[in-house]
Amino acid sequence: MPVRESNPRSFLIVLAMLAAFSALIARAAVPAAPAPSGFRYWDTRDTAAIPKTLSALGLYAVTPGKNAALIPQALRYEVNVPQWSDGARKRHWVILKTGRHIAFTEKDDYWGYPDSAVFVEELSIDTIPGDSSSRVLWETRVLFNKIDSLDPNSIGGWHGVSYKWRKNQQDADRVDLIHGKDDSIPVWPNGTGSGKSRAIKKWHFPTIYQCWVCHRTNTADTVHERSVLGFFTAQLNRPAPDSAGLNQLDWFFSKGILAGSKPAAWNDSPHWRGIEDSGASVDLRARSYIAANCSGCHGRRGISAGAAMGVMDNFDFHDMQAAMEFRNRATGWGFGLDTVPPLYYKPNDAANVTHGDSEPIVPALIVPGYPEKSVLIFREKSRNTTPGDYDLIYMQMPPLATFEVNNPAVALLERWVREMGGSTTAVGRSKRLSAGESIRLRGRFLTLVPDDGGSGLDGYRGNREVTLVSLDGRQVALRRLSAGKYEVPAGLPKGLYYIRAGARSVLRALF
Hints:
The longest helix has 22 residues, at about 10-30. The protein is globular. It has ten helices and 20 strands. It is an alpha+beta fold. Helix 6 crosses helix 10. Strand 6 (about 155-165) and strand 7 (about 170-175) form a beta hairpin. The chain has helices at about 10-30, 55, 210-215, 235, 250-255, 280-295, 305-310, 375-380, 390-395, 405-420; strands spanning about 75, 90-95, 100-105, 120-125, 135-145, 155-165, 170-175, 180-185, 200-205, 220, 220-225, 260, 440, 445-450, 465-470, 475, 480, 485, 495-500, 505-510.
């Protein structure tokens, strides 16, 4: 009897049918969780499907507006240390589909978020600071998590979108996803409301890509890098906003938002404290503020941009351990702190008694006792006023979504650094920042190897103006001969100089 040859095409068709049948069984075995009534999710592969207004999104129970109620599934929560957004007032909500929960971990922010989790942040502005009657709705940000493992075409991760409120406060419109929106609002800082005292508050509504800068991907319920900022024990360990006498974390467990092993009481659990909380130490308040505003990038799971700009500086404080690793850490550049009048270690400083006052204090991330030479403080006080200027954008911290300095926070941080005392180690002294292989001085010719190469002039490409700044503040501009090669003026006194390229500087012993 002849053997019948197999048909490869028929075999593949059978396999495809079996795969499709298996997928149907899998979908039937995992029923879809009911969506919140009225709320409209969108297909993450189709940005045009994102609702164009908050009313179309279905976020509100009836009509959007000031003090209007959101849908019942939206649970409002508060945080101990809000991120700084130029003084804007904030309210937060979390929305989960029925039967889904967030996997809780007490002493970390490594929480697992289910598919279709939604976080909402509402930002309002008091046009007369401190006067709630002058408050206007300004922006609402929606963060939507999509990790449908049953859909091979799904774009997993967090998807952020911003809405700008209309002047009539009755709805908000989605801003351009690609370009965001630059806008401004008049405010009256002195509280009179008169036209003569009016100031203009700048504002930037983020693009969908800028949302991804801070809120990273989320695959198979496992957080990769950071995702939701501010939703973890240290921030949520406080009274529930709508249930007097109940801890907010217990309230979330009772509502089914959180699931996992929790402590019997929250007294010994992580708990950050706000900058104006006089009942907490300066150290705790300062560390809490830095962690809330910096650890999203500069932490164990900071974003890639943070890694390039110094994520090795571990600002994590989620378990309340005092191991925020930045004290005395050299940054590689001074970010313009060479313009600060020269400071020297005091002869009576026991750690430096043999050096007298001949050793200048060089900028470092934090120089204990010297906030004016601490880069962390300087960058917190800097703000970009020229959009697109690379040096200015990355001089300020945080680099996005702020045009104004948080003066009370700066005052707290300066006090914190000053109270550390002047007991410094060798870090921050000129010998530590001696000339490296990337900076060479031969005769009157100074050569800077492009693209950093260890010089500390991050981003240097050999084509910028270079200035020498002496320790007494004198500035000497160098003539550029070619890429990375400059001429030093004849008769330049020997000593230490800051080599400054663009907005950044590093101290070097040239002679």
